[in-house]
Write a structure and sequence with these properties.
260 residues; alpha/beta; Rossmann fold; seven-stranded parallel β-sheet; 10 helices; 7 strands; 40% helix; globular; binds guanosine-5'-triphosphate; binds magnesium ion
């Protein structure tokens, strides 16, 4: 049995290959944890109960993860965004520019492929890949086992790249200290209003790809105003992982977090 989360070997194994059933989001979790339910017999109240159970179990594991991170003095960020907004590009640049000063590790969450993990590994930083299969987000259980790969006594910061998805990762606490939402200027300025949970639950927002603004009809101020309407406390910086603009300010945030 796992000492951190109490799961048995079967559940750990299931976890590595989870969500391979090809059914919808709720149903996957039902199969993982409540094998007696059939798809047809599910009522709305059953679904709500199962969702509540999943989230409360996740919250318990996330609290245990956070306690572990605090005990080890590791600053943990959960990078969330829609696919392609630049999470891996930001991490690559950050690892290359700060990796010699700060002891990082990275968890790469992807449905399929090791593409992003390979990119991070090329920077020399330890990385653990978690393929979620049909699953659309990381959860605290996955993170709990992923960190077993790292030497936690010699880490300053853990960066978790979540699965590209502006909806589901908002609901799953991983035990991080902050969610950082990345929005790229090619996505349109209204995304904070259309996907409010993600912006509400994030402490930081990186507005990425600002090098492309001259070529787009994107109103950065309007976008920021919408983000602040959803979350008045959100801290926003403009960055370009390509040109490097704004990265120094991002590094200052990171340094501030490390000194907590
Ligand atoms: N012009 C420009 N392109 C960027 C910038 N950041 C990332 N890109 C490009 O955007 C594309 C997607 O970048 P990724 O870093 O792979 O995005 P991601 O969020 O990790 O994508 P997923 O992991 O698939 O969700 C790549 O072609 C990058 O080169 C930027 O600041 N400016
Ligand atoms: Mg990526």
């Amino acid at each position: 049995m796992c000492t951190q989360c109490g799961c048995g070997p079967e559940e750990q194994h299931d976890h590595e290959h989870r969500h391979d059933h090809g059914a919808d989001h709720v149903h996957h979790h039902v199969h993982e944890h409540h094998h007696e339910h059939s798809e047809k017999s599910m009522t709305t109240s059953t679904i709500l109960t199962v969702e509540t159970d999943i989230l409360s179990k996740n919250n318990r594991l996330a609290a245990a993860n956070r306690e572990l991170f605090n005990r080890k003095g590791i600053f943990v960020l959960n990078l969330v965004s829609s696919p392609g907004s630049g999470k891996t590009s930001i991490l690559e640049r950050t690892m290359l520019e700060l990796g010699k000063k700060i002891r990082f590790a990275v968890i790469e969450g992807d449905q399929q492929t090791d593409n992003d993990a390979v990119r991070i590994a090329a920077t020399g930083v330890p990385v653990k890949l978690v393929n979620t299969g049909a699953g659309c987000h990381l959860d605290a259980h996955m993170v709990c086992h992923a960190v077993e790969e790292f030497d936690l006594d010699h880490l300053d910061a853990l960066m978790i790249e979540n699965v590209g998805n502006l909806v589901c990762p908002a609901s799953f606490d991983l035990g991080e200290h902050h969610k950082v939402v990345i929005l790229s200027v090619t996505e349109g300025e209204d995304k904070p209003l259309k996907y409010p949970a993600m912006f509400h639950n994030s402490d930081f927002m990186l507005l990425n790809k600002i090098d492309l603004i001259p070529y787009l009809d994107f109103d950065a101020e309007k976008c920021k105003e919408m983000a602040r309407r959803v979350n008045p406390h959100i801290k926003i910086i403009d960055i370009s992982a390509k040109s490097g603009e704004g990265m120094v300010e991002w590094y200052a945030w990171l340094a501030g977090g490390l000194q907590r």
